[in-house]
Amino acid sequence: MYFLDLVGVYISMLFLVVCVLMGVAYLTLLERKVLGYIQIRKGPNKVGFWGILQPFSDAIKLFTKEQTFPYMANLNIYYFSPAVNLFISLLLWMCMPFFTVYLNFSMSILFFLAVSSLSVYTLMLAGWSSNSGYSLLGSLRAVAQTISYEVSLALIFMSFIYLILSMNVLDFVKVQKFIWLLFLMFPLSLMWIISGLAETNRTPFDFAEGESELVSGFNIEYSSGGFALIFLAEYSSILFMSMLCILIFMGGDIYSGWFFLKLTFLSFFWIWARGTLPRFRYDKLMYLAWKSFLPSSLMYMIFFFSFKVMLLSLFL
Protein backbone atom coordinates (compact mmCIF):
# COMPACT_ATOMS: atom_id res chain seq x y z
CA MET A 1 0.00 0.00 0.00
CA TYR A 2 2.81 2.37 0.95
CA PHE A 3 4.57 1.64 -2.37
CA LEU A 4 1.42 2.47 -4.36
CA ASP A 5 1.05 5.75 -2.46
CA LEU A 6 4.64 6.61 -3.30
CA VAL A 7 4.06 5.83 -6.99
CA GLY A 8 0.94 8.02 -6.90
CA VAL A 9 2.96 10.89 -5.37
CA TYR A 10 5.61 10.71 -8.09
CA ILE A 11 3.00 10.51 -10.87
CA SER A 12 1.26 13.58 -9.38
CA MET A 13 4.59 15.44 -9.25
CA LEU A 14 5.34 14.58 -12.88
CA PHE A 15 1.83 15.60 -13.96
CA LEU A 16 2.16 18.95 -12.17
CA VAL A 17 5.61 19.65 -13.69
CA VAL A 18 4.35 18.87 -17.21
CA CYS A 19 1.34 21.17 -16.67
CA VAL A 20 3.60 23.95 -15.35
CA LEU A 21 5.90 23.65 -18.39
CA MET A 22 2.87 23.83 -20.72
CA GLY A 23 1.66 26.87 -18.78
CA VAL A 24 5.10 28.47 -19.16
CA ALA A 25 5.05 27.82 -22.93
CA TYR A 26 1.72 29.60 -23.35
CA LEU A 27 2.65 32.36 -20.90
CA THR A 28 5.46 33.31 -23.31
CA LEU A 29 2.93 33.38 -26.16
CA LEU A 30 0.55 35.51 -24.07
CA GLU A 31 3.40 37.90 -23.27
CA ARG A 32 4.40 38.30 -26.91
CA LYS A 33 0.77 38.85 -27.93
CA VAL A 34 0.02 41.38 -25.15
CA LEU A 35 3.28 43.30 -25.74
CA GLY A 36 2.46 43.27 -29.45
CA TYR A 37 -0.97 44.85 -28.92
CA ILE A 38 0.47 47.35 -26.40
CA GLN A 39 2.96 48.43 -29.11
CA ILE A 40 0.18 48.44 -31.78
CA ARG A 41 1.33 45.35 -33.71
CA LYS A 42 0.11 41.78 -34.06
CA GLY A 43 2.66 39.60 -32.27
CA PRO A 44 3.16 35.95 -33.36
CA ASN A 45 0.39 35.00 -35.80
CA LYS A 46 1.95 32.71 -38.45
CA VAL A 47 2.71 29.33 -36.81
CA GLY A 48 -0.67 27.64 -36.42
CA PHE A 49 -4.01 29.36 -35.85
CA TRP A 50 -3.32 32.83 -34.24
CA GLY A 51 0.24 31.68 -33.55
CA ILE A 52 -0.94 28.97 -31.15
CA LEU A 53 1.98 26.64 -32.05
CA GLN A 54 4.63 29.37 -31.74
CA PRO A 55 5.96 28.19 -28.30
CA PHE A 56 6.72 24.71 -29.69
CA SER A 57 8.39 26.24 -32.75
CA ASP A 58 10.56 28.40 -30.46
CA ALA A 59 11.44 25.41 -28.27
CA ILE A 60 12.51 23.28 -31.27
CA LYS A 61 14.57 26.18 -32.64
CA LEU A 62 16.30 26.87 -29.30
CA PHE A 63 17.12 23.26 -28.42
CA THR A 64 18.43 22.40 -31.92
CA LYS A 65 20.71 25.44 -32.28
CA GLU A 66 24.46 25.02 -31.98
CA GLN A 67 25.67 25.24 -28.38
CA THR A 68 28.48 27.78 -28.04
CA PHE A 69 30.53 28.38 -24.91
CA PRO A 70 33.15 30.95 -23.90
CA TYR A 71 36.72 29.72 -24.29
CA MET A 72 37.73 30.69 -20.71
CA ALA A 73 34.46 29.61 -19.02
CA ASN A 74 34.33 27.24 -16.06
CA LEU A 75 32.53 24.61 -18.11
CA ASN A 76 30.97 22.32 -15.48
CA ILE A 77 29.34 25.17 -13.54
CA TYR A 78 28.50 26.97 -16.78
CA TYR A 79 26.59 23.95 -18.12
CA PHE A 80 24.84 22.91 -14.90
CA SER A 81 23.70 26.34 -13.62
CA PRO A 82 20.69 26.74 -16.00
CA ALA A 83 19.52 23.15 -15.35
CA VAL A 84 19.75 23.60 -11.54
CA ASN A 85 17.97 26.97 -11.87
CA LEU A 86 15.04 25.31 -13.68
CA PHE A 87 15.01 22.42 -11.18
CA ILE A 88 14.75 24.85 -8.23
CA SER A 89 11.95 26.86 -9.86
CA LEU A 90 10.00 23.63 -10.53
CA LEU A 91 10.73 22.34 -7.02
CA LEU A 92 8.94 25.43 -5.66
CA TRP A 93 5.69 24.07 -7.12
CA MET A 94 5.88 21.04 -4.81
CA CYS A 95 4.40 23.10 -1.95
CA MET A 96 1.26 23.83 -3.99
CA PRO A 97 -1.87 22.18 -2.49
CA PHE A 98 -3.05 19.29 -4.67
CA PHE A 99 -5.83 16.70 -4.49
CA THR A 100 -3.30 14.15 -3.24
CA VAL A 101 -1.76 16.71 -0.79
CA TYR A 102 1.62 15.16 -1.53
CA LEU A 103 4.12 17.80 -0.36
CA ASN A 104 1.64 20.10 1.33
CA PHE A 105 3.10 19.55 4.77
CA SER A 106 2.56 21.84 7.73
CA MET A 107 5.70 23.90 6.96
CA SER A 108 5.06 24.55 3.26
CA ILE A 109 5.64 28.32 3.66
CA LEU A 110 9.05 27.63 5.18
CA PHE A 111 9.75 25.23 2.30
CA PHE A 112 8.94 28.02 -0.18
CA LEU A 113 11.26 30.53 1.56
CA ALA A 114 14.12 27.99 1.79
CA VAL A 115 13.90 26.81 -1.84
CA SER A 116 13.39 30.29 -3.35
CA SER A 117 16.53 31.56 -1.60
CA LEU A 118 18.57 28.84 -3.36
CA SER A 119 17.94 30.36 -6.81
CA VAL A 120 20.33 33.19 -5.89
CA TYR A 121 23.28 30.78 -6.06
CA THR A 122 22.44 29.58 -9.57
CA LEU A 123 22.21 33.17 -10.85
CA MET A 124 25.52 34.04 -9.23
CA LEU A 125 27.28 30.93 -10.57
CA ALA A 126 25.82 31.34 -14.08
CA GLY A 127 27.17 34.90 -14.25
CA TRP A 128 30.55 34.08 -12.69
CA SER A 129 31.27 30.86 -14.62
CA SER A 130 30.86 32.58 -18.03
CA ASN A 131 34.05 34.57 -17.25
CA SER A 132 32.60 37.70 -18.83
CA GLY A 133 32.56 41.12 -17.17
CA TYR A 134 29.03 41.88 -18.37
CA SER A 135 27.55 38.61 -17.09
CA LEU A 136 29.34 38.99 -13.73
CA LEU A 137 27.92 42.50 -13.28
CA GLY A 138 24.45 41.23 -14.24
CA SER A 139 24.63 38.37 -11.74
CA LEU A 140 25.88 40.67 -8.93
CA ARG A 141 22.95 42.99 -9.55
CA ALA A 142 20.49 40.11 -9.62
CA VAL A 143 21.89 38.64 -6.37
CA ALA A 144 21.81 41.99 -4.54
CA GLN A 145 18.25 42.62 -5.72
CA THR A 146 16.96 39.13 -4.86
CA ILE A 147 18.54 39.10 -1.39
CA SER A 148 17.17 42.60 -0.63
CA TYR A 149 13.60 41.74 -1.54
CA GLU A 150 13.67 38.29 0.08
CA VAL A 151 13.96 40.07 3.44
CA SER A 152 10.78 42.07 2.87
CA LEU A 153 8.98 39.01 1.42
CA ALA A 154 9.78 36.99 4.56
CA LEU A 155 8.66 39.80 6.88
CA ILE A 156 5.40 40.31 4.96
CA PHE A 157 4.84 36.55 5.22
CA MET A 158 5.41 36.76 8.98
CA SER A 159 2.48 39.19 9.31
CA PHE A 160 0.18 36.74 7.49
CA ILE A 161 1.52 33.85 9.58
CA TYR A 162 0.92 35.69 12.87
CA LEU A 163 -2.63 36.45 11.76
CA ILE A 164 -3.60 32.82 11.02
CA LEU A 165 -1.00 31.06 13.23
CA SER A 166 -0.05 28.47 10.61
CA MET A 167 2.65 27.85 8.00
CA ASN A 168 0.46 25.55 5.92
CA VAL A 169 -0.72 26.96 2.58
CA LEU A 170 -4.07 25.15 2.92
CA ASP A 171 -4.82 27.09 6.12
CA PHE A 172 -4.60 30.33 4.13
CA VAL A 173 -7.32 28.92 1.85
CA LYS A 174 -9.54 27.91 4.80
CA VAL A 175 -9.21 31.27 6.54
CA GLN A 176 -10.42 33.16 3.43
CA LYS A 177 -13.74 31.34 3.15
CA PHE A 178 -15.77 34.50 3.84
CA ILE A 179 -13.37 37.41 3.17
CA TRP A 180 -10.10 37.72 1.23
CA LEU A 181 -7.00 38.76 3.11
CA LEU A 182 -6.48 41.31 0.32
CA PHE A 183 -9.17 43.48 1.95
CA LEU A 184 -7.90 42.97 5.49
CA MET A 185 -4.22 43.58 4.63
CA PHE A 186 -4.34 45.74 1.51
CA PRO A 187 -1.00 47.63 1.93
CA LEU A 188 0.87 44.38 2.67
CA SER A 189 -0.69 42.73 -0.38
CA LEU A 190 0.52 45.56 -2.64
CA MET A 191 3.98 45.35 -1.07
CA TRP A 192 3.97 41.58 -1.68
CA ILE A 193 3.15 42.02 -5.40
CA ILE A 194 5.87 44.68 -5.85
CA SER A 195 8.39 42.48 -4.00
CA GLY A 196 7.32 39.55 -6.21
CA LEU A 197 8.09 41.64 -9.33
CA ALA A 198 11.53 42.47 -7.91
CA GLU A 199 12.15 38.86 -6.82
CA THR A 200 11.47 37.51 -10.32
CA ASN A 201 13.65 40.23 -11.94
CA ARG A 202 10.74 41.63 -13.97
CA THR A 203 10.05 45.13 -15.26
CA PRO A 204 10.34 47.73 -13.75
CA PHE A 205 13.05 45.93 -11.73
CA ASP A 206 14.82 44.03 -14.55
CA PHE A 207 18.32 45.31 -13.74
CA ALA A 208 19.88 41.88 -14.23
CA GLU A 209 19.01 42.27 -17.93
CA GLY A 210 19.79 45.96 -18.42
CA GLU A 211 20.31 45.88 -22.20
CA SER A 212 21.45 49.51 -22.36
CA GLU A 213 24.44 48.94 -20.07
CA LEU A 214 24.94 45.16 -19.72
CA VAL A 215 24.04 43.91 -23.22
CA SER A 216 21.90 41.07 -21.79
CA GLY A 217 22.86 40.60 -18.15
CA PHE A 218 24.00 37.36 -16.51
CA ASN A 219 22.81 35.16 -19.41
CA ILE A 220 24.78 36.99 -22.11
CA GLU A 221 27.10 34.05 -22.89
CA TYR A 222 24.30 31.44 -22.98
CA SER A 223 22.82 30.26 -26.26
CA SER A 224 20.44 27.51 -27.43
CA GLY A 225 19.54 25.03 -24.60
CA GLY A 226 21.16 26.93 -21.71
CA PHE A 227 19.33 30.15 -22.59
CA ALA A 228 16.04 28.22 -22.98
CA LEU A 229 16.41 26.68 -19.49
CA ILE A 230 17.06 30.09 -17.88
CA PHE A 231 14.05 31.46 -19.75
CA LEU A 232 11.82 28.57 -18.59
CA ALA A 233 12.96 29.03 -14.96
CA GLU A 234 12.06 32.74 -15.02
CA TYR A 235 8.57 32.18 -16.39
CA SER A 236 7.95 29.24 -14.07
CA SER A 237 8.78 31.58 -11.14
CA ILE A 238 6.34 34.19 -12.48
CA LEU A 239 3.54 31.60 -12.62
CA PHE A 240 4.42 30.35 -9.14
CA MET A 241 4.45 33.86 -7.61
CA SER A 242 1.05 34.55 -9.24
CA MET A 243 -0.31 31.28 -7.80
CA LEU A 244 1.05 32.11 -4.34
CA CYS A 245 -0.49 35.60 -4.43
CA ILE A 246 -3.90 34.05 -5.09
CA LEU A 247 -3.50 31.44 -2.32
CA ILE A 248 -2.39 33.97 0.28
CA PHE A 249 -4.64 36.97 -0.24
CA MET A 250 -7.07 36.42 -3.13
CA GLY A 251 -9.27 33.64 -1.78
CA GLY A 252 -7.20 30.66 -2.85
CA ASP A 253 -10.25 28.61 -3.97
CA ILE A 254 -7.89 26.10 -5.59
CA TYR A 255 -10.54 23.51 -6.53
CA SER A 256 -12.67 25.90 -8.62
CA GLY A 257 -12.41 27.49 -12.05
CA TRP A 258 -12.14 30.96 -10.49
CA PHE A 259 -8.66 30.06 -9.26
CA PHE A 260 -7.40 29.62 -12.82
CA LEU A 261 -9.10 32.81 -14.02
CA LYS A 262 -7.40 34.74 -11.19
CA LEU A 263 -4.09 33.05 -12.04
CA THR A 264 -4.43 34.11 -15.69
CA PHE A 265 -5.25 37.69 -14.68
CA LEU A 266 -2.31 37.95 -12.28
CA SER A 267 0.09 36.50 -14.87
CA PHE A 268 -1.33 39.04 -17.33
CA PHE A 269 -0.62 41.76 -14.71
CA TRP A 270 3.09 40.76 -14.69
CA ILE A 271 3.17 41.21 -18.51
CA TRP A 272 1.09 44.40 -18.37
CA ALA A 273 3.65 45.91 -15.97
CA ARG A 274 6.42 45.07 -18.46
CA GLY A 275 4.60 46.73 -21.34
CA THR A 276 3.67 49.85 -19.37
CA LEU A 277 6.35 50.81 -16.85
CA PRO A 278 9.85 52.18 -17.54
CA ARG A 279 12.85 50.69 -15.74
CA PHE A 280 13.49 51.91 -12.20
CA ARG A 281 16.82 53.42 -11.18
CA TYR A 282 19.03 50.94 -9.32
CA ASP A 283 19.68 53.11 -6.25
CA LYS A 284 15.93 53.77 -5.98
CA LEU A 285 15.29 50.00 -6.09
CA MET A 286 17.60 49.48 -3.10
CA TYR A 287 16.14 52.52 -1.34
CA LEU A 288 12.64 51.06 -1.81
CA ALA A 289 13.73 47.69 -0.34
CA TRP A 290 15.71 48.86 2.69
CA LYS A 291 14.19 52.25 3.58
CA SER A 292 10.53 51.75 2.64
CA PHE A 293 9.54 48.08 2.59
CA LEU A 294 11.74 46.87 5.45
CA PRO A 295 10.50 49.39 8.10
CA SER A 296 6.88 49.12 6.87
CA SER A 297 6.82 45.31 6.92
CA LEU A 298 8.52 45.28 10.35
CA MET A 299 5.92 47.67 11.76
CA TYR A 300 3.08 45.57 10.32
CA MET A 301 4.63 42.40 11.70
CA ILE A 302 4.92 43.91 15.21
CA PHE A 303 1.33 45.20 14.96
CA PHE A 304 -0.13 41.80 13.95
CA PHE A 305 1.96 40.00 16.55
CA SER A 306 0.68 42.35 19.30
CA PHE A 307 -2.87 42.08 17.96
CA LYS A 308 -2.75 38.27 18.03
CA VAL A 309 -1.22 38.16 21.53
CA MET A 310 -3.95 40.52 22.78
CA LEU A 311 -6.69 38.37 21.21
CA LEU A 312 -5.26 35.17 22.65
CA SER A 313 -4.95 36.70 26.14
CA LEU A 314 -8.60 37.83 25.96
CA PHE A 315 -10.07 34.53 24.80
CA LEU A 316 -7.85 31.93 26.49
Automatic annotation (TrEMBL):
<dbReference type="GO" id="GO:0005743">
    <property type="term" value="C:mitochondrial inner membrane"/>
</dbReference>
<keyword id="KW-0812">Transmembrane</keyword>
<dbReference type="GO" id="GO:0009060">
    <property type="term" value="P:aerobic respiration"/>
</dbReference>
<dbReference type="GO" id="GO:0003954">
    <property type="term" value="F:NADH dehydrogenase activity"/>
</dbReference>
<comment type="similarity">
    <text>Belongs to the complex I subunit 1 family.</text>
</comment>
<keyword id="KW-0830">Ubiquinone</keyword>
<comment type="function">
    <text>Core subunit of the mitochondrial membrane respiratory chain NADH dehydrogenase (Complex I) that is believed to belong to the minimal assembly required for catalysis. Complex I functions in the transfer of electrons from NADH to the respiratory chain. The immediate electron acceptor for the enzyme is believed to be ubiquinone.</text>
</comment>
<feature type="transmembrane region" description="Helical">
    <location>
        <begin position="255"/>
        <end position="273"/>
    </location>
</feature>
<feature type="transmembrane region" description="Helical">
    <location>
        <begin position="6"/>
        <end position="29"/>
    </location>
</feature>
<keyword id="KW-1133">Transmembrane helix</keyword>
<protein>
    <recommendedName>
        <fullName>NADH-ubiquinone oxidoreductase chain 1</fullName>
        <ecNumber>7.1.1.2</ecNumber>
    </recommendedName>
</protein>
<keyword id="KW-0813">Transport</keyword>
<keyword id="KW-0520">NAD</keyword>
<dbReference type="Pfam" id="PF00146">
    <property type="entry name" value="NADHdh"/>
</dbReference>
<dbReference type="InterPro" id="IPR018086">
    <property type="entry name" value="NADH_UbQ_OxRdtase_su1_CS"/>
</dbReference>
<feature type="transmembrane region" description="Helical">
    <location>
        <begin position="77"/>
        <end position="99"/>
    </location>
</feature>
<feature type="transmembrane region" description="Helical">
    <location>
        <begin position="178"/>
        <end position="198"/>
    </location>
</feature>
<feature type="transmembrane region" description="Helical">
    <location>
        <begin position="105"/>
        <end position="126"/>
    </location>
</feature>
<keyword id="KW-0472">Membrane</keyword>
<feature type="transmembrane region" description="Helical">
    <location>
        <begin position="147"/>
        <end position="166"/>
    </location>
</feature>
<keyword id="KW-0496">Mitochondrion</keyword>
<dbReference type="InterPro" id="IPR001694">
    <property type="entry name" value="NADH_UbQ_OxRdtase_su1/FPO"/>
</dbReference>
<feature type="transmembrane region" description="Helical">
    <location>
        <begin position="293"/>
        <end position="315"/>
    </location>
</feature>
<keyword id="KW-0999">Mitochondrion inner membrane</keyword>
<dbReference type="GO" id="GO:0008137">
    <property type="term" value="F:NADH dehydrogenase (ubiquinone) activity"/>
</dbReference>
<feature type="transmembrane region" description="Helical">
    <location>
        <begin position="227"/>
        <end position="249"/>
    </location>
</feature>
